[in-house]
């Protein structure tokens, strides 16, 4: 994507050049770094750790659900699903792709030497860790049982668990999210290389810009909501307590004003990754680039106007509910536009089946199922029956796990050579992708049926006729767990012992592959890049 | 800054206007205007806020990007307030059918 | 082969290495501060939302609580903050002109005015404490039919003005840092970005008060 020639392939026997990994050693060079690439790795390790913490709670839940009468105490089960939700949403999904792949790649993709505010970037990681410590403390002290949604007045008045500790953890981690979003917005506006116009930005960058909009505008509202919740828990003034004149639905309004757009914080980066992968492994420019770019922004904006669909049965006015339902249908349109454009990209492309592309295929199918089932829930008449059942759980796991986590794994594999300078073992990776896909569907498809049949969510016990499907789901979860452990093993192995990667193993387009060495030096480029080509110029056009 | 420096006189004028508007809003609040008390007070507050944004924060001479961001901030606040209020104000407009119909 | 950048053009001490020139750095700082202020709008916005809902729900209770708001202190404080915005903008202007003594003088004035605001707020809070209007176990209200609603409204009063006061305290700390930096000759007509950025922050905190004052103190007196 530059006037100058792409960097030549590096034969494996050449001594390792100075890059961001070997330029300096020692814990201080990592913990006090301002290099966005090192900060991305700090995030990568912490986020992975939290993923397995959240996963451990899921294991506990699925064990409990093997028997209709449950396995653990009911109060314990309540804590398991609460902590699973809090850790997975706030400490894994929200930061995942932006803080790891976004941090690493955005400056390189736009031709910059770093983000606009490198020290704020490091600060955001420390804030994330601080928030995580509060959350882990809440766990160690006995957990929280309110659900990750912290609904009042249970959370504000009746729960005897460590609500305030958990709320502080979420509050603090929110600032990490805000700072990341702030950094990306300013960077993308102000730090693009000459010739890198908005119309030449990789869709990865567009997706992260839209994500950052949501992070900046939405997160502060959940921050203040948790402050009010904490104050209420201490003072019992009644702001959310109907016994004292308060309205619990107000809590839900304020909570979901952020938490609905939050799900778009979680999925937009995944979609951003998929655009990059599909273009590369179809050897074709993304069909309808402009539509895909603007669809990200449309999702970000519309996503702020739909939160009331979480309040359909809460006592919200019918009139407001209708408006929210209608706009919820609208917000599906830009997502569908992306899916159609990805499909059109693949049509008559030259498709190959490396691991990132396998994850991309999985994403498209599973995200579509998840997204369509969201429309069921947006329909008020159906939602009355399906709300708070396993149908909802299956819906959001299809988009979050079948969608987002698969995109995350696809992205980690795709850019693994760039980040580490090594190649991962392709066959093991493909096997793992297949195991993940099979395990995922076996875990969550039965939950659609369970929800439709009426099994409620957040219950430690269930009617005995649901047992077969629950056992199936737990079996699937075991397989899924193996699927997640495999990359931990072979990626760690490959980082140390894998074959050295050539400059551009995928022959992909993009500044990160063509102009930045693999792995990159601290300031990302050998020469400051100048951009003259359109994005995804796989057909070699000049304009 | 590539802009010319703003004169003290301009700032002093805005300052005087802000003080005058504050006195006005306190004065108006003592009158019995029913619903117009709220409208007057909010209008004056918006004017005061606009003066601070435009002159003290220099947005009137800032780039279009800055103006876009400022507008976006207030627009998003409006989304929160309008949509939340729309629930509370419209409760009871459309009666839910009773279980017997 | 060593991957190093060609020798960069001579940078002023304040130009960070990842920026190409001072203009890019200044624009980035300004945009960054505005994005931060957007987050603050939404942060306070949540409380304004709660306040709007309850005022709409309990108009009579609200009218009754508004009699206990100290309009005199509120009005004086509004004037104090407007003065502090004036001195702040003059401090920024002095920085643009590279007038070190004027920068320090105006910043000190701004800081003093900010402390006056906080002091008066403290007086007001003490008044409320003595009147048993602080939400919590000690809360009592004169009009028995509105005691629950009044407690919610006072809760919002303390939450909103308290959060505002916390932002003022942070602002006071930032001003102190600026004064020290100015005294150490860190600013010149070519580089005074922190003064301008903290000026934006200070004005924003003033704007929040411009809206808090009528909503909490002025409306409902005559209903």
Name a few traits of the molecule.
heterotrimer, B: 101 residues, mainly alpha, 2 domains, 70% helix, flat, C: 223 residues, Four Helix Bundle (Hemerythrin (Met), subunit A), elongated, disordered N terminus
Describe the structure.
The complex is a heterotrimer of chains A (543), B (101) and C (223). Chain A has 543 residues and is an all-alpha fold. Chain A has one domain: Cytochrome c oxidase-like, subunit I domain (Cytochrome C Oxidase, Chain A), CATH 1.20.210.10. Helix content of chain A is 66%, strand content 0%. In chain A, α7 runs antiparallel to α8 (203-235) and α9 (248-281) crosses α14. The model of chain A has no long low-confidence stretch (mean pLDDT 95). Chain B is mainly α and 101 residues long. Chain B has two domains: 1-62; 63-93. Chain B contains three helices and no strands. Chain B has helices at 8-29, 35-56, 64-90. The mean pLDDT of chain B is 89. Chain C is an all-alpha fold. Chain C has a single domain (41-218), classed as Four Helix Bundle (Hemerythrin (Met), subunit A). Chain C starts with 21 loop residues before the first helix and ends in a 5-residue tail after the last helix.
Shape of chain C: elongated
**Helix content bin of chain A:** 55-70%
> SSE string of chain A, helix = H, strand = E?
HHHHHHHHHHHHHHHHH
Give the overall average pLDDT of chain C: 91
The oligomerization state is: heterotrimer
Low-confidence regions of chain C: 1-10
Given this structure, which CATH class of chain A is correct? Mainly Alpha
- Biggest beta-sheet profile of chain C: none
CATH superfamily of chain A: Cytochrome c oxidase-like, subunit I domain
């Amino acid at each position: 994507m530059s006037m100058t020639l792409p960097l030549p392939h590096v034969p494996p026997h050449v001594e390792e050049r100075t890059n961001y990994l070997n330029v300096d050693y020692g814990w201080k060079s990592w913990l006090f770094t301002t290099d966005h690439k090192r900060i991305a790795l700090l995030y990568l390790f912490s986020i992975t750790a939290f993923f397995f913490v959240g996963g451990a709670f899921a294991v506990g839940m699925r064990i409990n659900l093997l028997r209709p009468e449950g396995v653990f105490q009911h109060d314990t089960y309540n804590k398991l699903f609460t902590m699973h939700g809090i850790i997975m949403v706030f400490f894994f999904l929200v930061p995942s792709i932006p803080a790891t792949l976004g941090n690493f790649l955005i400056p390189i993709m736009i031709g910059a030497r770093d983000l606009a505010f490198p020290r704020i970037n490091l600060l955001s990681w420390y804030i994330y860790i601080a928030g995580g410590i509060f959350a882990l403390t809440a766990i160690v002290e006995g957990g929280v049982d309110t659900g990750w949604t912290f609904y009042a007045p249970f959370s504000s008045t009746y729960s005897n668990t460590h609500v305030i500790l958990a709320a502080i953890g979420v509050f603090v981690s929110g600032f990490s999210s805000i700072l990341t979003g702030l950094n990306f917005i300013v960077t993308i506006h102000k730090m693009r290389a000459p010739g890198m116009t908005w119309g030449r930005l990789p869709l990865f960058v567009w997706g992260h810009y839209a994500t950052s909009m949501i992070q900046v505008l939405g997160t502060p509202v959940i921050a203040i909501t948790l402050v009010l919740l904490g104050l209420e828990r201490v003072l019992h003034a009644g702001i959310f307590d109907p016994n004292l004149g308060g309205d619990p639905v107000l809590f839900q309004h304020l909570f979901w004003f952020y938490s609905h757009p939050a799900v778009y914080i979680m999925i937009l980066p995944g979609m951003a990754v998929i655009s990059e992968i599909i273009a590369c492994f179809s050897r074709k420019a993304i069909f309808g680039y402009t539509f895909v770019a603007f669809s990200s922004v449309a999702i970000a904006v519309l996503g702020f106007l739909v939160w009331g669909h979480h309040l359909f049965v809460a006592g919200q006015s019918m009139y407001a509910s209708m408006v929210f339902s209608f706009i919820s249908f609208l917000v599906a349109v830009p997502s569908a536009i992306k899916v159609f454009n990805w499909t059109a990209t693949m049509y008559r492309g030259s498709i190959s089946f490396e691991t990132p592309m396998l994850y991309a295929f999985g994403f498209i199918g599973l995200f579509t199922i998840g997204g369509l089932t969201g429309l069921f829930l947006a329909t008020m008449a159906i939602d009355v029956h399906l709300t708070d059942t396993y149908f909802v759980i299956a819906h959001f796991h299809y988009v979050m796990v079948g969608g987002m986590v698969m995109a995350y794994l696809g992205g980690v594999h795709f850019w693994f050579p760039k980040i580490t300078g090594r190649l991962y073992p392709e066959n093991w990776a493909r096997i793992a992708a297949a195991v993940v896909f099979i395990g995922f569907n076996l875990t969550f498809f039965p939950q659609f049926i369970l929800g439709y049949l009426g099994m409620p969510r957040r219950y430690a016990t269930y009617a005995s006729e649901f047992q077969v499907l629950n056992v199936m789901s737990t079996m699937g979860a075991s397989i899924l767990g193996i699927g997640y452990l495999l990359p931990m093993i072979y990626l760690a192995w490959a980082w140390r012992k894998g074959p050295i990667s050539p400059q551009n193993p995928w022959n992909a387009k993009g500044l990160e592959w063509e102009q930045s060495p693999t792995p990159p030096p601290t300031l990302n480029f050998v020469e400051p890049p100048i951009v003259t080509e359109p994005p995804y110029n796989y057909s070699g056009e000049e304009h | 800054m590539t802009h010319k420096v703003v004169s003290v006189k301009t700032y002093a004028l805005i300052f005087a206007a802000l003080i005058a508007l504050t006195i006005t809003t306190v004065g108006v609040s003592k009158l019995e205007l029913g619903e117009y008390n709220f409208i007057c007070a909010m209008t004056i507050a918006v004017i005061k806020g606009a003066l601070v944004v435009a002159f003290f924060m220099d947005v009137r001479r800032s780039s279009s990007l800055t103006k876009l961001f400022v507008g976006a901030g207030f627009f998003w606040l409006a989304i929160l307030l309008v949509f939340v209020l729309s629930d509370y104000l419209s409760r009871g407009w459309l009666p839910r059918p009773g279980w017997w119909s | 082969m060593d991957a190093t950048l060609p020798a960069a053009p001579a940078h002023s001490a304040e130009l960070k290495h990842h920026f190409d020139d001072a203009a890019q750095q200044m624009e980035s700082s300004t945009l960054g501060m505005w994005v931060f202020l957007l987050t603050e709008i939404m942060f306070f916005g949540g409380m304004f939302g709660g306040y709007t809902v309850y005022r709409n729900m309990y108009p009579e209770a609200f009218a009754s609580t508004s009699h206990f708001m100290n309009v005199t202190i509120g009005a004086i404080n509004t004037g104090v903050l407007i003065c502090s915005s004036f001195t702040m903008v003059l401090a920024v202007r002095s920085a643009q002109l590279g007038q070190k003594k004027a920068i320090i003088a105006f910043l000190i004035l701004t800081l003093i005015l900010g402390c006056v605001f906080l002091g008066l707020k403290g007086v007001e809070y003490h008044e409320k404490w003595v009147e048993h209007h602080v939400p919590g176990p000690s809360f009592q209200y004169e009009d028995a039919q509105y005691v629950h609603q009044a407690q919610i409204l006072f809760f919002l009063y303390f939450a909103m003005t308290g959060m505002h006061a916390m932002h003022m305290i942070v602002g006071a700390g930032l001003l102190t840092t600026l004064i020290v930096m100015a005294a150490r000759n860190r600013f010149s007509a070519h580089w005074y970005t922190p003064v301008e950025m903290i000026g934006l922050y200070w004005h924003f905190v003033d704007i929040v008060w411009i809206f808090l004052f009528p909503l909490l103190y002025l409306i409902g007196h005559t209903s």
